[in-house]
Amino acid sequence: MQRIKVNFKNSDSEQLQGVLELPSNQEPHNFILFAHCFTCNKNFHAPTNISASLASKGYGVLRFDFTGLGDSEGEFENTNFSGNVEDLIAAAKFLEQEYSSPTIIVGHSLGGAAAMFAAKKISSMKCIATINAPSNLEHLEKHFENNLEKIEKQGFAKVNIGGRSFRIKKQFVDDLRQNNEIKTVGELRKAFLILHSPNDKIVNIKHAEELYKAARHPKSFVSLDTADHMLSQEKDSNYAGNVIAAWATSYIDQPEQAELETDHEVMANLGDEGYTTQIITGKHHFLADEPESVGGKNLGPNPYELVSSGLAACTSMTIQMYARRKNWHIENVETHVSYSKKHAEDCENCEDNSAKIDTFEREIILKSELDDKQIQRIREIADKCPVHKTLSSKSQIITNLKT
């Protein structure tokens, strides 16, 4: 994926700073607006991971700092919920002018509520996805309920939210109360996905129930199981991104994916960050990656797992192809392959690590009623699969480097 720093102006001509996450090997088929949670910013782990997951599926994702937060201009104490909605509208106009109108909006927590209000005013929006979002804004007052009397009397108060101090003005509280109508959800008439954790201690799961009841079809709910409100674990934010990417495909237009014309050609594309690699072969697009233990995100199989997958798939195909030609009924062929480096049998220098060779261990499980002679023949056929022959013979790799 590639990341581009962008900036655009809000309705008060203040500069808002954002990051546009793009797929590295294709033009985005759709653009998404991401609204971060209350007092968060674009670089928190949840928006970063969700945006990366969506970009890996071909989406372009704009996440940005609301006015007065992160790298954006303005004073947070002078902002309010309505201002966040206006910021999202400004972001949509920026995408429309510079790239393409956004068709999906994703909002986390209070950003989810802002996304619902903004979607009513952005005509290009086809889909809304909320993550641990409130059905009303009354719960936000709990963050500063001990200061409400002070806010009412003197017009402001210092409030501690998430370990940070923020100055909250009376106009902020008044604006929340004026935008507290759940009927907004029922007026949207757009595809709606609600993702919520039943263990959310900040925005109770009942909010998701109220949103679902108020929304019109098509609407969907997905439980985030053990996730917390902030989606602190990377696996939870990656999962949310993958679910949104798959769900939205039913409601958006997508051009046909690029296809490599040369038979058996594979293209692997990796940017300057991480190891998540986009792969195209023919009409098929998928990911390769490395495990988290070595700095990857584990969004796809690693290179050796891909090689092992090729051997396993080719083995099962070859066996079934032969059996069908012989009219031998095999209900199922299950091939397991594992890769490691091991000493060759009876090697002369077994104490020397350099004497180890690449080893693929294969286990084939047949569900059939073949006799012993037929099973022995299947064992011989397995060794004749094309990928087996390639891996067990000497190959050559010819490299051409272009800059």
TrEMBL record:
<dbReference type="InterPro" id="IPR029058">
    <property type="entry name" value="AB_hydrolase_fold"/>
</dbReference>
<dbReference type="InterPro" id="IPR015946">
    <property type="entry name" value="KH_dom-like_a/b"/>
</dbReference>
<dbReference type="InterPro" id="IPR036102">
    <property type="entry name" value="OsmC/Ohrsf"/>
</dbReference>
<dbReference type="Pfam" id="PF02566">
    <property type="entry name" value="OsmC"/>
</dbReference>
<dbReference type="InterPro" id="IPR003718">
    <property type="entry name" value="OsmC/Ohr_fam"/>
</dbReference>
<dbReference type="InterPro" id="IPR022742">
    <property type="entry name" value="Hydrolase_4"/>
</dbReference>
<protein>
    <submittedName>
        <fullName>Osmotically inducible protein C</fullName>
    </submittedName>
</protein>
<dbReference type="Pfam" id="PF12146">
    <property type="entry name" value="Hydrolase_4"/>
</dbReference>
<feature type="domain" description="Serine aminopeptidase S33">
    <location>
        <begin position="49"/>
        <end position="124"/>
    </location>
</feature>
